[in-house]
Write a structure and sequence with these properties.
Blueprint lengths: L1 H7 L2 H10 L6 H10 L18 H12 L3 E2 H4 L5 H6 L4 E4 L25 H11 L4 E6 L10 H14 L4 E5 L7 H8 L5 E3 L9 H4 L5 H14 L4 E8 L5 H13 L4 E6 L16 H14 L3 E5 L8 H6 L3
Parallel strand pairs: 2-3, 3-4, 4-5, 5-6, 6-7, 7-8
Antiparallel strand pairs: 1-2
Helix pairs in contact: 7-8, 8-9, 9-11, 12-13
């Protein structure tokens, strides 16, 4: 009976049901039981934020829809999308809206052989110009079904942006391209201002969280890009709360620093749905601040660490402090 209740009711209601049934169970034990069932519990107070709205938010949403464009903000259910849209910014998602990989933390759906929109570079450049952007972030789904992983389209988007927007800065968040150095060269030769590739999580969690990716390969991507183009800033990001220990998180940060990476971001993992990996730990703002200080002491040129930090969140601020 209790198992049926667990699958039927939401967590807050279930906590009340536990009391009604007379179960002598502490709140902590109740929450533990919910987690064991893969059911999310309420977020701590520091992870609650108001949802901005207004004309700028609606303008950006409408512009993207009319242009047939996707953003990682909406596809990946980023908690900052309302804030970013309201401020006239967005991270463009190219190469489709579905991914060939099945990372267990990501809200983007898995699919193969999705058509590539060859007009996407022009569409992105037009939208970015209409939005008045001077710093544009472009990312993609992973396309293992394409020969170069879609590197050619990244290069074309960069070229179109720089051709159409005077003095624009471009940051690209790329997949690993299976370690294909020719594909990496294609992107690097297009001269992005920042090249980002996320390691995402600690090595020991890859089998659980990123079964189709390789930790060491991601580190090699960062190292190759920095060695090949030392004039381009290299960036990487991590999620906290997937089950890593603090020691494992710090060791991962150190591994990233050894590649020559300039910028790093660390943010709280949030479970997109009950079908995704659950949150094992909510780091406090104080813990994130401690992590930031450690990153700065390790020598990163820029470090952002906080509950709502994401790869491209306030990216221009980090870049502008170092340009």
């Amino acid at each position: 009976m209790f198992g049926n209740l667990i699958s039927t009711y939401n967590p807050k209601l279930l906590l009340g049901i536990v009391t009604i049934l007379g179960e002598k169970m502490s709140l902590t034990h109740s929450r533990k039981m919910l987690k064991e069932q893969g059911i999310r519990v309420s977020k701590p107070k520091w992870l609650r934020k108001p949802l901005p709205s207004g004309p700028e938010y609606e303008k950006i949403k409408s512009l993207l829809k009319k242009g047939g464009l996707h953003t990682v903000c909406s596809q990946a259910k980023c908690p900052n999308q309302f804030e970013c849209y309201s401020k006239g910014t967005a991270t463009f998602l190219i190469l489709g809206e579905k991914c060939t990989r099945n990372c267990k933390f990501c809200a983007i759906e898995q699919s193969f052989n999705e058509a590539v929109d060859k007009d996407e570079p022009e569409k992105v450049a037009y939208a970015a110009k209409q939005m008045g952007l001077k710093y544009v972030v472009v990312t993609s789904v992973t396309r293992d079904d394409l020969e170069d992983g879609g590197a050619f389209l990244f290069a074309e988007v960069i070229h179109e942006l720089k051709k159409n927007i005077e003095n624009v800065f471009v940051e690209v968040l790329i997949p690993d391209f299976k370690g294909n150095e020719k594909a990496l060269d294609t992107v690097l030769n297009a001269n992005p201002d920042v090249l980002n590739h996320n390691v995402e999580t600690a090595k020991n969690l890859y089998e659980k969280a990123r079964p189709m990716a390789d930790y060491d390969q991601s580190l090699k991507v960062l190292s190759y890009c920095k060695n090949k183009r030392p004039d381009i800033y290299v960036k990487s990001g991590l999620m906290a709360g997937l089950g890593e220990t603090m020691e494992e998180l710090l060791n991962t940060i150190k591994d990233i620093k050894k590649t020559g990476t300039d910028f790093i971001t660390i943010g709280q993992y949030l479970q997109p749905s009950a079908n995704h990996l659950r949150v094992e730990k909510f780091y406090t703002p104080e813990e994130f601040e401690e992590i930031k200080i450690i990153c700065e002491n390790l020598g990163f040129k820029g470090a952002a660490s906080g509950p709502f930090v994401r790869s491209s969140y306030k990216a221009f601020e980090m870049f502008s402090l170092n340009k």
